[in-house]
Design a protein that fits this description.
It is built from 19 helices and 18 strands. By secondary structure, the protein is of the alpha/beta class. Strands 1, 2, 3, 4, 8, 13 and 14 form a seven-stranded parallel β-sheet that branches. The protein has a four-stranded antiparallel β-sheet with strand order 6-5-7-9. Strands 10-12-11 form a three-stranded antiparallel β-sheet. The longest helix is centred in the C-terminal third of the chain and has 31 residues.
């Protein structure tokens, strides 16, 4: 089995998880499940970022210790990912003892190599970004473009990383590795940012920020986010400058690191330079996704439109998170922004999952019971619908390899549309009425075998619905090895009592556990 290592950005625990956080984690989980289906040895890392001034201030305001704030909110993230069936291998916290120790070793190695130096500095600091900003990056009014607040001018003596030393190597890597930055249109943005790149502060004075990892040998400074947070991708694997673990040797470099578009600069430039300084390979791909807006407006605490994934699942009384997972993946084309609204959610999942896929399976199984007592009479030879199924498999694989998850999902839905048209065109009910039972049996087999393909292809998006589809087809294999036509065998497949809808329409009188009871 080939290894496949994917990571997400680590979430800042100054607040609780919202659907923007969920979008990225679902994306990573969908990719992870897909490559597991293709027999890849996947290692999926996520985590929480737990140091810095915002957590320190929140703790002071609530009269708690910073670690108490971190523990409370990190637990909320864990609960959210469990609710959404995010099947990660490890969730790292930057307050973990092992992470702290290795980060200090990394910092010391960079100092010993001459890549870190101490320097007095006056700069414009945005507490929202937890970052020093260049005046040319501000709005015309001198505000941070992301948080729309005026940065504070700060003078400190900090440790700096020689980022400019690695500028040319990073430019060369981007130009010679087109797969490194995805979507590809982001590459020019990064190359433009590299033109005026400067060395970066990698520590803060404890007089300004006390909540963080101590700089080794200087207890007046803490290690800043660029080395602390970014290093999680290797510390989680047991990287140690002196003796890297077997897990690290097996999995690094990352196959894909999934991040939001707003932190592309820090990953494509800062992280790349740190890895180069450590003598480590760069990740194969950095994948930047867009943002999720709410009713076409950016999420904001001040306007009160921040939505937690739990809110959606509870509001629509969803038995499984599958519908939410599915919608989040299809609402945004690769790398572009997406939008959530209750109306869009209901219309999309009802159309695709209930009407198109669910109803197709349900009515076909009922016809099998009605006309053949639930039995498959024979396995027909290959057909046009079989060829369409196999073409869909290859298209879905190709789109996943290009991280086009919304487009891959559309391929599955398009195939379901083709199968629905096939049913309407062949009219198996009319064939049965006319006594053409062999022809009727062939049509039903083709539809049910198509549904098996759909169930397997849908698994990364909707693991529970997929399980129910395959269960109703008395089929347990869900890997791509089983995507060969004609594997549903002759014999009894189902009976009337076992046929149930795999997805009930949202807001229907039958949907939701409460409404069923």
């Amino acid at each position: 089995m080939s290894k496949y290592y994917l990571t997400t950005a680590i979430d800042y625990v100054n607040g609780r998880p919202h659907i923007g956080h969920a979008y990225e984690k679902i994306m990573a989980d969908v990719i992870s499940r897909h490559y597991k289906q293709r027999n890849m040895d996947v290692y999926f890392l996520t985590g929480t970022d737990e140091h810095g001034i915002k957590i320190q201030k929140t703790a002071e305001k609530s009269q708690k210790l910073p670690i108490e704030i971190c523990d409370m909110n990190a637990n909320e993230f864990k609960k959210a990912w469990k609710l959404l069936d995010i099947d990660y291998d490890k969730l790292i916290r930057t307050t973990d003892a092992e992470h702290t120790q290795i980060v200090q070793k990394i910092f010391k190695k960079l100092m010993d190599n001459g890549d870190i130096y101490k320097h007095s500095y006056t700069g414009l600091y945005c507490s929202g970004c937890e970052s020093f900003l260049n005046p040319r990056d501000l709005t015309e009014d001198g505000l941070c473009p992301d948080h729309m607040v005026k940065p504070e001018e700060i003078q400190e003596e900090n440790y700096f990383f020689k980022l400019s030393k690695y500028k040319d190597r990073i430019v060369e890597h981007i130009k010679t590795h087109p797969e490194f930055i995805q979507p590809a249109f982001r590459a020019n943005e990064v190359l433009n940012q590299l033109e005026n790149i400067e060395d970066i502060s990698v520590s803060r004075s404890k007089e300004s920020v006390s909540w963080g990892i101590d700089v080794p040998g200087d207890d007046s400074q803490i290690i800043y986010v660029w080395i602390d947070a970014l290093s999680n991708y290797i510390t989680a694997l047991g990287y140690d400058p002196d003796s890297p673990s077997d897990l690290f040797k097996k999995n690094w470099p990352a196959d894909v690191q999934i991040i939001g578009k707003d932190i592309m600069k820090f990953h494509a430039i800062y992280w790349s330079a740190i890895l180069m300084a450590l003598g480590l390979e760069l990740p194969k791909t950095i994948l930047a996704h867009g943002w999720i807006t709410i009713d076409q407006a950016k999420m904001s605490k001040s306007i009160g439109n921040v939505i937690a994934p739990k809110d959606v699942i509870e509001e629509f009384e969803l038995q499984y998170p599958d519908a939410f997972r599915y919608f989040m993946m299809v609402t945004a084309p690769s790398g572009k922004d997406g939008n959530y609204s209750d109306l869009d959610f209901k219309e999309r999942v009802n159309a695709d999952l209930a009407n198109n896929i669910g109803n197709l399976l349900n009515r076909t199984l009922n016809m099998l019971v009605k006309y053949f007592d639930g039995e498959i009479k024979f396995v027909p030879k290959s057909s046009d619908i079989a060829n369409e199924a196999l073409k869909t498999v290859e298209s879905v694989k190709d789109k996943f390899d290009r991280f086009e998850l919304a487009e891959a999902a559309q391929d599955i839905v398009n195939f379901a549309n083709v199968v629905n048209k096939y049913v309407n065109d062949t009219a198996p009910w009319a064939l049965a009425k006319d006594g053409k039972l062999d022809e009727c049996s062939e049509v039903l087999y083709n539809v049910l075998e198509s549904m098996r393909f759909i169930g397997i292809l849908l698994l990364p998006y909707c693991p529970n619905i997929s399980r129910d589809i395959l269960s109703q087809l008395s089929f347990s294999e869900s890997g791509y090895d089983s995507l060969n036509w004609g594997l549903i065998p002759v014999g009894r497949l189902t009976e009337k009592e076992k046929i149930k809808p795999v997805f009930l329409r949202v807001d229907s009188e039958f949907a939701g556990d409460k409404k069923k009871s």
